[in-house]
């Protein structure tokens, strides 16, 4: 059970509308193509090092931007890698791939 508090009736109505339009909250339902499974065993994401402007002025350094997305941050990391956009030339592409390899079935049916 959850307890929600709202500052206004309008805020409550907006929250109710959002929850009605978005019944699922977990990534298995909202971004199911990103979940690795036996039938979706590999996934790649491409990000590009880009310059970013704010209020008409360029921000210092470079930021990683996914294809079709907004620039995020200049440092991305995961298991086994760290990529600092500012250490690389503008336009550098970072390709991150995750793949699962399922164990071979045991022909005798015995568990290891």
Characterise the protein shown here.
By secondary structure, the chain is α+β, with helices and mostly antiparallel strands. The protein has one domain. The chain is 15% helix and 29% strand. It has helices at 9-21, 27-30; strands at 42-50, 53-54, 57-58, 63-66, 75-78, 81-84, 93-99. A 3-stranded antiparallel β-sheet has the order 4-1-7, with no helix packed on it. The model has no long low-confidence stretch (mean pLDDT 88). Residues 1-21 are annotated as: Disordered.
Would you summarize the structure shown here?
Residues 1-21 are annotated as: Disordered. With 112 residues, this protein is α+β, with helices and mostly antiparallel strands. The protein contains two helices and seven strands, in the order ααβββββββ.
Principal-axes geometry comes out as flat
Structural class: alpha+beta
Number of strands: 7
Percent helix range: 10-25%
Question: Can you tell me the number of structural domains?
Answer: 1
Region (Disordered): 1-21
Name its key features.
single chain; 112 residues; alpha+beta; three-stranded antiparallel β-sheet; two-stranded antiparallel ribbon; 7 strands
Write the layout of secondary structure elements.
Blueprint lengths: L8 H13 L5 H4 L11 E9 L2 E2 L2 E2 L4 E4 L8 E4 L2 E4 L8 E7 L13
Antiparallel strand pairs: 1-4, 1-7, 2-3, 5-6
């Amino acid at each position: 059970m959850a307890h929600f508090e709202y500052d206004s009736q309008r805020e409550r109505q907006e929250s109710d509308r959002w929850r009605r339009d978005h019944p699922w909250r977990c990534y298995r339902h909202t971004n199911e193509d990103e979940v690795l499974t036996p039938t979706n065993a590999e996934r790649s994401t491409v990000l590009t090092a880009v310059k970013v402007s704010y209020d008409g002025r360029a921000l210092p350094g470079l930021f990683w931007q996914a294809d079709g997305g907004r620039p995020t941050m200049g440092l991305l990391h995961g298991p086994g890698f760290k990529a600092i956009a500012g250490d690389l030339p503008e336009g550098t592409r970072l390709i991150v791939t995750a793949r699962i390899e399922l164990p071979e079935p045991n022909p005798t049916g015995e568990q290891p």
